[in-house]
């Protein structure tokens, strides 16, 4: 008979990035269904769910409510880096673990977070290494005005500069801002070879719609848009304006379905926790590092690196054509490097200074 373990779900069903959060939520719930009927696992999950409604101020209190009001120690959720950072103090205070299954900007390694999606050495750097020789070296960066957009722009600027390229512009919109006209005008004037779009949710859809509208002007050739956070779950919301976008991630739907890697990595996260807990009553109360270490000692092979708690992932680059992503390039599964300690290309040296008298 399966033992029942409570888990938390903290994902928004409304707000400015609903498509992303709902895809993650569907993936979590599907994973729970699969685990609960799997005869090869002795664990079943019971879901304790809260809806933050896309509001940053609701994540911490609802995380605290789950951890204090139930037996759940593991929570699946958060869509933005801002919301993830809101809940980490609560996880530390009440001995919780967050299973975070969406792409993020790196430069973090909390002992309370299982990073189950890709970080920049697994998404942004492979994408830029493809874009620069194939699209050109004149880039334009646009992102949401918070840590995801800022950090990706900083990493991209370094990579583009190291390749001898140029960053022609670096612009931001608040999450939910759907008026990018000034940015479109700037892009029309500067004519970059490609645009790195790190906008989130409604802002991204509005930007691509305006860019497509501008392309109706015969004097403007629309640059290729590349992204590390646009997946199948947003195709319907973005519409035809997203056609031609090139994205990077660990997984794309083989038949053009609408879940994408947000759904799949969330589903896989549930299965990963189930495998770690299988045959080990009470293990759900262990700190994440102890859970991984004891699983390894028991002969299991966790996907999470025990030193920084990030998952190994492949890097796949795909173009949106005819309403589905079609693979362009696939890199082998690679270890996460959240602090970019092993850059494959050195930054170009600056001018050499000499002391003269």
From TrEMBL:
TM region(s), chain numbering: none
Top-level taxonomic group: Bacteria
Gene3D superfamilies named in the record: 3.40.50.2300
SUPFAM superfamilies attached to this UniProt entry: Periplasmic binding protein-like I (SSF53822)
Protein name: Transporter substrate-binding protein
InterPro entries the UniProt entry points to: Peripla_BP_I
């Amino acid at each position: 008979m399966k033992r029942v373990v409570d888990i938390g779900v903290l994902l928004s069903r409304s707000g400015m990035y609903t498509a992303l959060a709902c895809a993650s939520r569907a993936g979590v719930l599907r994973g729970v269904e699969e685990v609960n009927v799997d005869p090869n696992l002795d664990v079943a999950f019971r879901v304790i769910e809260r809806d933050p409604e896309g509001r940053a101020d609701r994540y911490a209190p609802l995380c605290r409510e789950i951890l204090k009001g139930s037996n759940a120690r593991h929570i699946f959720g958060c869509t933005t880096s801002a919301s993830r950072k809101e809940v980490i103090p609560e996880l530390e205070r009440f001995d919780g673990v967050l299973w975070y299954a969406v792409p993020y900007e790196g430069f973090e390694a909390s002992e309370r977070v299982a990073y189950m999606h890709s970080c920049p050495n697994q998404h942004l750097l492979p994408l830029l290494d493809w874009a620069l020789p194939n699209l050109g070296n004149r880039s334009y960066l646009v992102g949401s005005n918070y840590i995801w957009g800022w950090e990706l722009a900083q990493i991209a600027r370094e990579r583009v500069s190291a390749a001898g390229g140029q960053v022609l512009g670096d612009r931001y919109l608040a999450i939910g801002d759907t008026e990018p006209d000034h940015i479109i005008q700037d892009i029309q004037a500067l004519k970059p070879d490609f645009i790195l779009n790190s906008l989130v949710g409604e802002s991204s859809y509005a930007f691509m719609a305006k860019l497509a509208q501008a392309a109706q002007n015969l004097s403007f050739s629309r640059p290729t848009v590349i992204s590390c956070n646009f997946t199948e779950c947003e195709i319907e919301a973005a519409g035809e304006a997203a056609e031609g976008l090139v994205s990077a991630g660990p997984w794309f739907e083989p038949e053009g379905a609408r879940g994408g890697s947000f759904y799949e990595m969330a589903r896989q996260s549930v299965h990963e926790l189930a495998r770690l807990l299988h045959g080990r009553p009470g293990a759900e109360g262990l700190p994440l590092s102890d859970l991984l270490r004891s699983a390894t000692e028991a002969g299991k092979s966790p996907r999470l690196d025990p030193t920084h708690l990030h998952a190994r992932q492949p890097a796949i680059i795909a173009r949106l054509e005819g309403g589905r992503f079609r693979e362009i390039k696939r890199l082998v599964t690679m270890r996460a490097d959240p602090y970019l300690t092993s850059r494959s290309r050195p930054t170009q040296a600056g001018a050499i200074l000499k002391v003269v008298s």
